[in-house]
Amino acid sequence: MSVPGKRNGSHAWSHSQVTRREALQAGAVGILGLGMNHLAGLREAHAATGSLPAGKAKKLIFIFLSGGLAQHESFDMKPSAPENIRGEFKPIVTKTPGLQICEHLPMLAQRSEMWALCRSLTHGSNEHSAGHHMMLTGHSDLPTGFSPNSPSRRDRASIAAIAGYAMRKRQKNNLPTAVVLPERLVHNSGRVIPGQHAGEMGPQYDPWMIEASPFHNTSYGAFPQFAFDHQNRGKGDNRVFQAPQLSLPNGLGMESVQGRLALLESMNQQRRALGHHAQVENFDRLRQGAVSLLTESTVHDALDVTHADAKDLDRYGRNSFGWSLLMARKLVAAGVTLVQVNLGNDETWDTHGNAFPHLKDNLLPPTDKAVSALLDDLHASGELDETLIVMAGEFGRTPQITLLEKHYKLPGRDHWGALQSVFFAGGGIRGGNVVGQSDAIGAYPVERPVKPENFAATLYSALGIPATAAWHDVANRPHQIYHGEPIAELF
Q: Superkingdom of this entry's organism (predicted)?
């Protein structure tokens, strides 16, 4: 679990200095009243004002493609454009008449009745950190003092944090409302990308971070099967996808836990006598959440995906993309409301060069397979209608293909905030549907331009969060959740 740290006097996410397993086992100590900072993701989140209507979607899986998926090589191909724009890939038909997508997404093409596209999302930045902040928070404007090099508590709150806050009232258990996996998005220089935490809402509303994928500064993609380096520098990748183990420390059995809980209760009674009711109640809720995580068998099963049923592993893929989406599917089944899945570490989809072989061989195949398996699972169980799936990056890619000879042997596309395609499925989405249209070269929207505010509002609306909802700061001042209209044509 990530622990909010401090940098230059402001709260930020710092790189963990302990192993993943040590950190998660340390979380077990939280129920004993020790190291409560490991349970930040379980802190109380008051629901938004007003009652929540019964939305079509009860759960959300937000798939984020850091680096920026090329619209031309995925969901908005331009086969009639000049060669330096249309690229090397061919379009294929889907099950939806008139809808074509990339030839390297054949499994999704066969499931087009389950999903829809928005081909006209646009914002004003071509810079990674700004684009991440815009798409992960749903705000086109950057906050005052925004720094691309350091997350700050002046940043906007992430969609995951906002939705987790607003959906808390629906949570029927002590599990975290919002989870991000399998890793934080960290630049190869070591800096953490802004937009991932609760920002101005405060660290108590940060999503719960499951770090199962080790940091690597030159290798990208769905390791171990599809790991690659954008610049082919030849550095090895020996990472192991190791889901955290929520286990008690060695030598500590449940009898010891019960005994220490009894001691804590005695201490709590003394604290109550001293008038610290609010603090004690919050402590009790944290303890209950920790006990729930330790004792809930479905949570253990959800996290231990590398040892899942062989048939499931074959369908999702035995790689970080497949394991991550299988973990997300199991977590929403266990009762988590929102799961953000980062398919690849920071800038995995940043295909400036060597774009076509890397997309063809390493990026599109595991994505096609894992997302298709997720759709199949939710459809077969009857949960697709109540589980919204979205897939987006921080921006799209330039219409023109370029070659940066200093860094790459083969061409690619640069950053392009003006246009990207966004994938939607489930949660009341009308399958086989396309909203918006781009121009002839895939550069700008020419029909139904959509902003990050509309994107965020669509997610909130699908989850049944009322348009009047607000979150409240420490001074009890309301802050509106919606900053745009939902994309109504998707539903």
A: Bacteria
Q: How far is CA 199 from the centre of its chain?
A: 16
**For 197, left (φ over 0), alpha (ψ -120 to 50), or beta?**
beta
**CA 398, CA 395: separation in Å to the nearest integer?**
10
Inter-helix orientation angle 364-381/320-334, to 10°: 20
| Cα angle 257-259-260, degrees, rounded to a multiple of 5 | 65
Which residue type occupies 176? P
- The 10 Å Cβ neighbour count of residue 129 is 24
**5: exposed, middle or buried (Cβ count in 10 Å: 0-12, 13-18, 19+):** middle
Q: Provide the terminal-to-terminal Cα distance of the chain, rounded to the nearest Å.
A: 36
Q: Can you tell me the distance from the alpha carbon of 40 to that of 23, in angstroms, rounded to the nearest whole number?
A: 13
Please check whether residue 166 is in contact with residue 470, taking contact to mean a CB–CB distance below 8 angstroms: no
- Give the architecture (CATH level 2) of 4-490: 3-Layer(aba) Sandwich (3.40)
DSSP-based three-state secondary structure for 411: coil
**What does the CA dihedral 183, 184, 185, 186 come to, rounded to 10 degrees?**
-110
In the predicted model, what is the mean pLDDT of residues 151-168?
94
Q: Give me the long-range contacts of 281-289 (CB less than 8 A, separation at least 24).
A: 282/43, 282/44, 283/33, 283/36, 285/42, 285/44, 285/174, 286/30, 286/36, 286/39, 286/42, 286/43, 287/30, 287/31, 287/33, 287/261, 288/174, 289/39, 289/42, 289/174, 289/175, 289/176
Q: Which residue is it, tokens 């991932």?
A: 196
Please name the residue that has the structure tokens 């994928």.
213
Taking Cα atoms as reference points, which of 179, 182, 105, 113 lies closest to residue 376? 113
Exposure b/e, 164-182, CB count within 10 A at least 16 = b: bbbbbeebeebbbbbbbbb
Give dist(CA 269, CA 275) in Å, integer. 10
CA pair distance 59, 338, nearest whole angstrom: 6
- Structure-block tokens of residue 459: 């997610």
Beta 178-181 vs 338-342: how paired, if at all? Answer: parallel
pTM of the model: 0.83
Element (H, E) at 390: strand 387-393
Rounded mean pLDDT, 157-162: 97
- The CA-atom distances, in angstroms, between 158 and each of 199, 219, 239 are 7, 26, 28
Q: Give pLDDT tens digits for 361-398.
A: 999 999 999 999 999 999 999 999 999 999 999 999 99
Angular region, 382: left φ>0, alpha ψ -120 to 50, beta rest:
left
Least confident of 43-47, 81-85, 471-475: 43-47
Contact 11, 203 (CB under 8 A): yes
Q: Is 483 helix (H, G, I), strand (E, B) or coil?
A: coil
